Amino acid sequence: MDENQLKRVLARTQKELKEARKQLRNWQKKSETSSRMLAEKIDELVMSHHILSSTRQTMNLEDRLEIILKGVTIGVGFDRAIILLVDEKEKVLTDGMGSEGIPWKRIQAIRVPLTKEGGILAQAVLKKRTYHIKNASKAEDLNPEILGALKARSFVVTPLVTGGSVVGIIWADNSDSGRPIKKEAIGSLIFLANQAALAIRNIQLYINLEEANKELVRLSNIKSEFVSTVSHELRTPLTSIKEGVLLVLDQTAGKINDTQKRCLTIAQQEVDRLARIINNLLDISRIEAGKVELKKRWVNIAELSKEVLTSLQSQAKDKGIHLRFEPPTDLPKMYIDPDRIKEVFINLLGNALKFTLRRGKITLRIEDKKDEVEVSVSDTGPGIPADQMDKIFDKFHQVEGASFSGTGGTGLGLPIAQKIIEMHQGRIWVKSRLGRGSRFIFTLPKDSQRTKARRQKRGGNI
Ligand SMILES: Nc1ncnc2c1ncn2[C@@H]1O[C@H](COP(=O)(O)OP(=O)(O)OP(=O)(O)O)[C@@H](O)[C@H]1O
Ligand SMILES: [Mg+2]
């Protein structure tokens, strides 16, 4: 290789080296940019995780807004930020909150109408757009009150949008340091605003739900109180009517003829029905208000159910219904409120009698299970449609249809029975097939047997 050739090779190598260096610098730059972008993305993710996860921890709106404001200042790097929330009823942006150092009173006073007069802030809400105002003194459509409060020359406003609706806006600026607002910072602010909007909406929904719940409880209490007072007031005159009718009927107050007797017998039946309805209303409202206390004692449940069956025997005979009872031989005594459990038996057996057609069959079964005693009332009545099985335990719910028409009642028997059983820590449910009869089952825990044993050990009376 001569000298010239050598020079050419050297020059070429030098050029290639320069090219390689340039490429290396480019790659370096690119990798710096992508690692910076990666770092920013990580920051964004950390920030949104913080906003969302802290939303789950506490449901306090002010705390949440403070975290979001910190996200805008510490996270994204703006000097100052404020959040204003949309008041749907008043159609204004209000309830403002600012980052540290922003005069609180002035922010609190801000009310921006969501109309043309509301300027750029209203536009951000109405058009769901982000605005970057570089020179506030030149821009039109600005809000004098907010500018007065913040004295910003350049700022960004972005809407807080979630599920298509706007919950508020975030305003951010760099007026303290005078640094220009970078495009990346605006991107991060929009990203943060999306997370924040969801967090704010969740809290608002939670707060609304809580308020609605409180109102419901208040109204329900008023209603229970009303029902309770009215039923109570009706009971006393009804007793007098009942006694009066009875006196005339049994001719203590003088002789009556057959027509008068028939009329009064109907009146007596209706008064009894009315008394039952009033008692049921009073019962359910007192149970719901937690005013009923169980008067528990040790009871032979088989004997208790026999009493109820005996009282219903004549009614069953009139309808040609066969009543069967299958008690086990050695049933343990149960620690229950006998009057209340009797009420459950009356409700269930009463229903079976009411809904079963003539010459049907009703079976009362008591079974001694491991931890509980299971009672069931089966009938050969019309059965209950599958979609109504749960509903019949709701207050006032009655199945509609030919088999049920004219059976009377208020639809309170089952909900009362359910409440009484639950107060005894038992369960109640129904098994039924339309046209194949129904079987109502309830359980009472034998857990209290242990209490009995303990008492006996201590030498207490049972
Ligand atoms: N054994 C049964 N067979 C068929 N349907 C029943 C039976 N028991 C209850 N139901 C249905 O469930 C509804 C609710 O029963 P519940 O005992 O709560 O009210 P009611 O008997 O109609 O009125 P009340 O018990 O207040 O006098 C009944 O109206 C009826 O439609
Ligand atoms: Mg009933």
Per-chain topology:
Elements: H1 3-57, H2 61-76, E1 80-87, E2 92-98, H3 104-108, E3 112-113, H4 119-126, E4 131-133, H5 144-150, E5 155-162, E6 165-173, H6 183-249, H7 258-288, E7 297-299, H8 301-318, E8 322-326, E9 334-336, H9 338-355, E10 361-368, E11 372-379, H10 413-423, E12 428-432, E13 438-445, H11 448-458
Parallel strand pairs: 8-10
Antiparallel strand pairs: 1-2, 1-6, 2-3, 4-5, 5-6, 7-9, 10-11, 11-13, 12-13
Bound molecules: adenosine-5'-triphosphate and magnesium ion (MG).
Description:
With 462 residues, the protein is α+β, with helices and mostly antiparallel strands. It is built from eleven helices and 13 strands. It is elongated. The model has no long low-confidence stretch (mean pLDDT 86). Adenosine-5'-triphosphate (ATP) binds at residues 280, 347, 351-352, 355, 379, 381-382, 384, 392, 397-399, 404, 409-414, 438. Magnesium ion is lined by residues 347, 350-351, 409, 413.
